[in-house]
Amino acid sequence: MPAGTATAISCPNIAFIKYWGNRDNARRIPANGSISMNLAGLYSHTQVAFGLTLEKDRLFLDGEAVTGAALRRASALLDRVRALAGVHERALVRSYNNFPTGTGIASSASGFAALTLAASRAAGLDLAEAELSRLARTASGSACRSIPGGFVEWRAGYDHASSYAFSIAPPEHWELTDCIAVISQSHKPTTSQEGHLLADTSPLQAARVSSAESRLRICRNAILARDFEALAQVTELDSNLMHAVMLTGSPGLMYWLPATILVMRSVQGWRRGGLPACFTVDAGPNVHVICPTSEAQHVIDRLNQLDGVIQVLSAAPGEQARLVTNNLD
Ligand code: DP6
Predict the structure, then answer these.
(1) Residue 324 belongs to a domain
(2) What tens digit of pLDDT does each residue of 31-81 get?
(3) CATH assignment of the domain containing 135
(4) Which of 29, 73, 130, 136 is the most buried (most CB within 10 A)?
(5) pTM, two decimal places
């Protein structure tokens, strides 16, 4: 029987404890567990339509046809869905992001989470959250954390079955805001997919990985207890550890721009001055500044005054990936 059409939306997420490096690159079994918060209001909106008349998978991102490696990555995920569902048709995929792609706001996380949910439903599957998370992980590691809602932990595990993400607290658990200082909107020179492969070339990666369990515990407890100071300290430490690994691999990766450092230093100064805010930076130059929502306007106003900050986006804790009815037609 021919499969159908489904549309899903999913938020990106920002990691407080980072995923960097895999113990199994092919299946994206990570070197360490990670913890993140979904970002409400930022979305990938993805429609999948399996069709008898299509000769190969076709992918449009923000209206532009995608080819090459990016299409192969989406097709590999569609192949896994087809194998699970016993479906043979190719798919037409149309995906839109309401935020800039390739700036360190993880569009691969939201994009592949939405693709996983839409494709599996269009193929007639009704998968449990953990299974959706595992499938999304095979396409992009951080995508597995955009399947569940709110504050999410990805347990590293050791094989496909044991490596998936789950919610540790719902979005309404803690009124936090991620104020994203956008510093560059150009595509990053080294993708995170390429970066993960270099993690083990840094002499610091082993130390980062072997101490990750204690940071995961501190972060999990800080979230559960809504302890901002504990969250701030462990989040900045973990971001700095990941960038230390990036900087000291071969070749070394430096994602920071001068304005990235200006924002990080400013945030630390504000915190010393009594403003609860902390930074974290992914594989790009933008700085995510986390603060209690009651302080968000204050933080946004200050960020807007810093040289090199192009704009500031803000996001509260976001929901899980979900199906929607409007099919983009
Ligand atoms: C720095 O999930 O983008 O954002 O699995 O190759 O798609 P792939 O990598 P990706 O890596 C994310 C790296 C990070 C940290 C994090 O989100 O945990």
Answers:
(1) no
(2) 999 999 999 999 999 999 999 788 999 999 999 999 999 999 999 999 999
(3) 3.30.230.10
(4) 136
(5) 0.96
